[in-house]
Design brief:
Layout (H helix, E strand, L loop, with lengths): L2 E4 H13 L4 E3 L6 E5 L3 H11 L8 E3 L3 H7 L4 H10 L4 E6 L8 H4 L4 E5 L4 H9 L3 E2 L14 H8 L5 E4 L10 E5 L4 E5 L5 H8 L25 E3 L10 E4 L13 E4 L6 H16 L5 E4 L8 H12 L5
Parallel strand pairs: 1-8, 4-6, 5-9, 11-14, 12-13, 12-14
Antiparallel strand pairs: 2-3, 3-7, 4-7, 5-6, 9-10
Helix pairs in contact: 1-6
Length: about 325
């Protein structure tokens, strides 16, 4: 089983394990990440093995600062503007991969681009101490609900990894927004912790949408899936449903729900984003065969929340 250490005691042990090629769970401001040295092919393979992740799904390389990032990818003026505005923070930039960066090809899954993010807090400290970028997808079994607490990570991956660094509940609670940056265009590949309108306001540009294929992490159709089936945008709760609620007004028949969690009783989308995965996990553990989900508005962070819900509800083989 994994050792669980609080952030303030974990830095030296975390760096030792990363240097030894281990995959460990670390807190970031978005969700907990399953981290390994991005320059070590065996370590990166351990991420895929631990998660059971398809190898065509690329990973995000996390960096300590923009100086490290520019040794790995080619930044244009637009990419620098985005990094200056949103780093450190929950924005991932997909950029041309610089030859000789040292990042292992497993991280990019054969693409000529690389996804880069500069995290806050412990993530940044451990990368700086390691001196190398860290690949760190969400710390959960592939396709399952992302962990936003050390306890959730332990329940899922505790038997497969040596260390979980406990930083408490993650403040954003939703993975990073991913954008692909061109010379004069920005394409939204995955909505997340930075709302699209914030990016448009900073750049003065409209985001393009509708990217095809797997160009970045989190683009598989079925993802973040609980064991229970899901019904989205419900107006009525059926007997035996668990209910994922939003806002002050309940769907008809809410009293029938075998379990209920409200993303935000006040209708606050940032609070809803932070609660999304932990509430889904709690409802999935209720034993209900179906999780009914009340409508969540599409504006702001609601776009990312609805994206995750749609992926969680997508048809799947398991």
């Amino acid at each position: 089983m994994a050792d669980i250490l609080p952030e303030r005691e974990a830095l030296r042990r975390a760096v030792e394990l990363l240097r030894a090629g281990a995959a460990i769970a670390i807190p970031t401001e978005t969700v907990y990440g399953l981290a390994a040295d991005a320059t070590n092919g065996e370590a990166v393979a351990r991420i895929y093995e631990t998660k059971g992740r398809p190898q065509f799904n690329p990973l995000i390389a996390h960096v300590a600062d923009r100086e490290m990032a520019e040794r790995i990818a080619v930044f244009n003026l637009l990419a620098r503007r985005l990094a200056d505005a949103f780093w450190p923070g929950p924005l991932t930039l997909v950029l041309p991969h610089r030859a000789g960066s040292g990042v292992h090809p497993l991280v990019t899954a054969g693409l000529d681009t690389i996804a880069l993010r500069c995290p806050k807090g412990f993530g940044a400290r451990v990368i700086e101490a390691l001196g190398r970028p860290v690949a760190a997808p969400s710390a959960n079994s592939s396709g399952r609900i992302s962990g936003t607490t050390a306890e959730a990570v332990e329940a899922d991956l505790g038997s497969r990894i040596p260390l979980i660094v406990d930083g408490g509940p993650t403040p954003v609670g939703l993975e990073s927004t991913i954008v692909k940056v061109g010379e004069d265009s920005i394409t939204l590949l995955r909505p997340g912790g930075v709302a699209a309108d914030e990016i448009e306001r900073v750049t003065g540009m409209s985001l393009m949408r509708g990217a095809k294929g797997v160009q970045a992490p989190g683009m598989l159709a079925s993802h973040y899936a609980p064991s229970a089936h899901m019904r989205l945008g419900v107006a009525e709760v059926k007997p035996g449903d668990a209910l994922l609620a939003f806002g002050p007004q309940r769907a008809a028949g809410a009293e029938r729900a075998v379990a209920l969690r409200n993303l935000s009783e006040s209708g606050d989308l940032r609070e809803a984003a932070a609660n999304l995965f932990s509430h889904l996990l709690a409802l999935d553990r209720s034993g209900a065969a179906t999780i009914a989900v009340e409508p969540v508005p599409l504006e702001g962070l609601g776009e990312a929340i609805n994206d995750r819900l749609a992926r969680a509800a997508a048809p799947r083989d398991h």
